[in-house]
Amino acid sequence: MTDYNDNHQAETASEANRFRDEEGRIDPAWLMRLRTALAAAQTAEIVEMIAPLRTADTGDVLESLENPERLALVMALGDRFDYSALTEVDESVRLDLLELVPNADIARGVANLSSDDAVYLLEDLETVDRDDILAQLPAFERLSLKRSLDFPEESAGRRMQSEFIAIPPFWTVGQTIDYLRAERDLPDEFYQIYVVDASYHVLGIVPLDRLLRTRRPVSIEQLMTTDIVLAHANDDQEEAARDFERYDLIEVGVVDENERLVGVLTVDDIVDVIQEEAGEDIRLLAGVGDEEVSDSTLDTVKSRVPWLIVNLCTAIVVSLVIGLFNATIEQMVALAALMPIVASMGGNAGTQTMTVTVRALAMRELSGRKLRRLITREMVVGVINGIIFAILIGIVTAIRFANVDLGVVIAMAMIINLIVAGTAGILIPLTLDRLKADPAIASAVFVTTITDVVGFFAFLALAGLWFGLF
Amino acid sequence: MTDYNDNHQAETASEANRFRDEEGRIDPAWLMRLRTALAAAQTAEIVEMIAPLRTADTGDVLESLENPERLALVMALGDRFDYSALTEVDESVRLDLLELVPNADIARGVANLSSDDAVYLLEDLETVDRDDILAQLPAFERLSLKRSLDFPEESAGRRMQSEFIAIPPFWTVGQTIDYLRAERDLPDEFYQIYVVDASYHVLGIVPLDRLLRTRRPVSIEQLMTTDIVLAHANDDQEEAARDFERYDLIEVGVVDENERLVGVLTVDDIVDVIQEEAGEDIRLLAGVGDEEVSDSTLDTVKSRVPWLIVNLCTAIVVSLVIGLFNATIEQMVALAALMPIVASMGGNAGTQTMTVTVRALAMRELSGRKLRRLITREMVVGVINGIIFAILIGIVTAIRFANVDLGVVIAMAMIINLIVAGTAGILIPLTLDRLKADPAIASAVFVTTITDVVGFFAFLALAGLWFGLF
Predict the structure, then answer these.
(1) Residue range B124-153: average pLDDT?
(2) Where are the transmembrane segments (chains A, B) (predicted)?
């Protein structure tokens, strides 16, 4: 019971210190207290408020402040500030703050970080600042960071942490445990041990739980798993992320072009990659690039204008198509009010199919047989939905305008456009994918342009023919 | 050097056995060989081809087959078939296959699974099948699975694995290691050890790496971390996933309503949750629900029709708005061709803002100050984009129709609609979120309906006034 009470007290204490409200947002009163302390440069109060926070929470706090307050916070904490909090904030916040903090302070902070976090902070800095900071680091760390920074952006080599534990296969479990107990310079956290030869080629891995449940005399060679997944340093981080997902991995060794172990990727970094990549598709489909919530107004405008220009061009094309039927519309102005219905339904149906396809392509779900099944399904769905909505809109139109012929014309146009929508929705992303373009970027423009053009054209042309208006 | 050669040979061998092509898809020739073996019931060949595969790869193979072949594969492998492969396939594939396999075989397979995988297979089965299978399991497993199945769907309790390692605080490192070496009934994989009191309240955790680097006499109480994150069994799995992301966790203890430890969540399950949730937003925005690529045609139609019906209704409303201006359009038919441009640009700009907002809400990125900043930014972006595209379309229109007045009218309508688009794009998802509705589901309809109505209305009404056509 004492134990339970202790535990209970600890929890109550943490409730009082808790700085998040019910919704999981930072408590406004807490934040106000911090901002007052920052404005008054009350170092003791600032340290007391920030020190108990987890790294990610400190990151959230930084995001909620203004630039001068962020600087004041970092300066007030001094060497107690954990620079890994900066890996948890938006890029624009990080760059603004690192611009303000003196390089000497950054260098001291970076020296305490694991190599993956250090690279994350350094990679987007201006070259002159980055070199200045690197020059202030101990030689060993400088070289290891430089090597990581030489790998391409968003590669496994950039994301990896250079600290890992490698042992020879002829050791025993006992020797390994003794080594781990004696060695001071181990990674902060690790989940498996790499078994390597003299040239650092990976022979196998030993998960820590297996090491712990095995008796001391057993040899590592007997214990290790040889069925291992490795990443190449030049691989895209997305490829590595797919392996983590597919094979439920916690940690993966990273090897260089000579197959020598140079670092490890851990699942916590990969979770961020998966989150980013998943968000990327949705943003690309909507034409908002790699925007972040904290981007400036100007950056936001810059990121959105190109997509809107493309859409302006396709809207003008659609307008030219409608213009072909001026005479028809003049004779029967009801067509003008009805025509957007056909186009809009096509756009929505096409977007549905396209979204499913883009997502499946992003997750590499489409192999030969599944792909053929999907294409067939989408076309059949187009036909069925076409028939359903042709009947609905046909009846509504015939009643609204007391004109059965008009109902028939719009029904026919609807069937045509929904079949086209299904077909375009699947074939356009697939074609872009085959052409090695990212289907998430360009599919939406193509699909809606096609459903708009076909929607307006089919409806107006059929109406012209049916009513003899040409 | 011998080591390297051995390693190299191992790699060449695995290349020959490799069943994926360059693109990471299942090799068609390999698949054809398997299908032939399945058709001819060549058990030895089937076992030889499937046995070396990882679980996830077996799942991919199952997805590429037809139902009778899937059954043949499971039956040919018999007790060698790892039922956890079924956690890696689409729901429709899993349910189809489990329907075909006799319950007695499923029960034998389920008995060998970790509890989280077992629950995953059982949860979507018909009650009668599920009870039949549970009845064939050993009592201990049956009870533990029943308890997990009693937690709500998509809760931490459903996702958790009931196997974990719990020790008292008064043990030493040495005692713990001896226990791990002696005990036969340990979880398959584990990353941390839970320190509990006699009632299974969690006092702390010990990561395995820390256990390994500490000398035998040190007490667990000294070694354990008390700053721990726990999940409640009734919590939504998304909430738990956010903690994993935020705090870079590998494993989290799950407690029941009495704060007693009942299971653990591991990051590999959470990666799947994150992937699903990220995909959910994109699908909801496009109105395709929780569809999967392998869903049947009928299920697909059912999932898409509701959204299309909503869109049909809003399209009819838009059409009624246009109908108000029949007389205006009749007098100046060029308006009919131009009006979709204003509406379409508004729709696109609104979708951009809405996507950024929905995504930020999903990731809980919007606290008070950031939110106010975002609202201001989006409105200013609306004004700037409004001006840019007003000028562009104004000039194009004035030239195309040799009519400066028409250019002025469309420019004014464009500014109005892009400001409305930015405002609606941010306020609609925020309002839905405040009303506890999922902004990803309904935002798109509201935003595009508003930009359509405002786009057509502003343009046609301004034209009517400017040219005196009313």
Answers:
(1) 91
(2) 305-327, 333-358, 379-402, 408-432, 444-469
User: Where are the CATH 1.25.60.10 domain residues in chain A?
Assistant: 21-158
In which residue ranges of chain B is CATH 3.10.580.10 found?
166-286
Residue A396 corresponds to which tokens in the numbers above? 């509504």
What is the count of residue pairs from A and B with beta carbons less than 8 Å apart?
A: 364
Note whether B24 contacts A: Cβ–Cβ < 8 A: yes
Edge-to-edge strand list for the sheet holding B166-167: B166-167, B192-196, B202-207
Is residue A428 within 8 Å of A446, Cβ to Cβ?
yes
Q: Which residues of B touch A381 (CB under 8 A)?
A: 297, 300-301, 304
CB contact under 8 Å between B278 and A283, yes or no, is no
Model ipTM?
0.78
Question: A397-425 pLDDT, tens per residue?
Answer: 999 999 999 999 999 999 999 999 999 99
**Range(s) within chain B of domains with CATH label 1.25.60.10:** 25-154
**pLDDT for A284-325, tens place per residue?**
888 887 777 778 888 889 888 988 999 999 999 999 999 999
State the architecture of A166-286 in CATH terms: Roll (3.10)
A330:B334 CB<8 A: no
CA distances from B449 to A119, B190, B225, B442, B446 (A): 46, 51, 53, 11, 5
Is there a contact between A275 and B279 if contact means CB atoms under 8 Å apart? no
CATH superfamily of A21-158: MgtE N-terminal domain-like (1.25.60.10)
Q: Residue A302 is which amino acid?
A: K
CATH superfamily of B25-154: MgtE N-terminal domain-like (1.25.60.10)
**Spatial distance between the Cα atoms of B84 and B81, rounded to a whole number of angstroms:** 9
Minimal Cα distance from A251: which residue of B?
Answer: B250
* Interface with chain A: mutation pick from B3, B89, B302, B317, highest number of A CBs within 10 Å: B3
Nearest CA in chain B to A332: B330
